[in-house]
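Continuing the series of single-chain predictions for the mutant panel. This is the parent chain; the variants come on the following pages.
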Amino acid sequence: MFSRFFIERPIFAAVLSILLVLAGLVSMRVLPVEQYPAITPVQVTVSATYPGADSKTLADSVAAPIEAQINGVDNMLYMTSTSSSTGQLTLTVYFALDTDPDIAQVQVQNRVNLALPTLPEAVTQQGVSVQKKSATIMMLLAITAGGDRYSAEYVANYANVYVLDALKRVPGAGQAQIMGVPDQAMRIWMNPDRMASLGITTSDIANAVNQQNALFGAGQIGQQPNAAPVQLSFPVVTQGQFTDPHQYEKIILRASQDGSAIVRVGDVARAEVGLRQYIVDTRLNDAPATFIAIYQQPGANGLAVSAAVRQTMAQMKTRFPEGIDYAIALDTNDFVRLSIEEVIHTLAEAMVLVVLVVYLFLQSLRTTLICAVAIVVALVATFGGMLALGFSINLLTLFGLILAIGMVVDDAIVVVENVERIMHADHLAPKEATIKAMSEIGSSLVAVVLVMASVFVPAAFLPGTTGQLYKQFAITIVVSVGISGLVALTLTPAMCALLLKHNPPPQRGFFAWFNALIDRLTAGFGHAVELVIKR
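Parent structure:
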């Protein structure tokens, strides 16, 4: 008999359960925490910029070639694209739920590379990015500046250079990005009238800036080969790229052969430092602010990522320039944290109620202790199964654990009640009574576990989003019930053989009155059933 091995070796049974509990505790710390399981398709986003193009031009010259190449990639469900009048293209490709996000990103990147030669040169110069990211924003940070000391461009650049890089290093927050285009650039504002009078075109200005504001490798003085020995060689350093607006305004556009007539950029335009593109205006409480959106990476613990981001920002605030501050405008983990706390409170209350009900009916602290231990072992060890199956700690899995409390205690109650019945009826010692009881109900316990599992397992095979939503809920219950069956066959009989003692039923007091009431209700229910059957 399977259970007899553990009845005669209670230490082995205890060690087995302790290992299950330790595995559950370790898994509990590494499991990702989120509000709901991942029920949305895997998404890969392609972003491109065509400066100065309208939405139709962008859709025809950029979106269409990329869509034609991406269409038909493995496991793709569908794709959507948005072409804005500001020259911004956002194309999102949706994949099946079981698709590896990394593989999907690589496949999309390969298809985009095939489309690059057909795209306008201005688009390829700006670059086409391919990223995998979550569908929704996890956190939204706002970098603000009080007063008029700092301009909005300065704040955006500070957030881009210092804050964003620090946030990307936070585990699980690598997909953070600034809303809008925070990159600084030298903007040249042209005067059409002056350009027309001097015969200057925008291409002339662009070519002049590219040619006269470039970095060149000028070689070295004394570089080999040389006819005579050389003691030292010196690299030739040319002028660096321009950083001052006046340097751009001095760029020569046209000059006569004798140098008497020179047309510079400053004659037909003015230069100033600004943002590369002005497409988003972000404000917090009607004051200019730079927003940083943080997306939770797949498999990351949302609560841990939120805490790490808050800690990082608190440390960085000590190094902020005077007048610059930050605010957490949105943190979806606040609701997740409150929801999980409520579920945990419900879980604790359910355990207390189950233990009280067990004590009320069994009327023995020893039997109640055995049942309570079985509940704890089954529930905690379930987290190990959740980790092995790739689940997360979310509202559905925790709700499954709450529902499983009443199920996992059933097996332990069946064992202790049968042992006490045999001890009372056959006047056997606890160990012998436990061996006899397990020989009678061992197969029944296995059957009970299989029947309960058969109720919930079909829910895991539901297709689509509905199946993905209820899969973790159903399988969590199945895992907990399966572990409770194992505990009922190993630890529970071992504890019964060691702890149980035969106590006669109480003859007075509350429990005597309660037992008499239950007996009368049982007899009345029996008569009612008999009457219904006769009629």
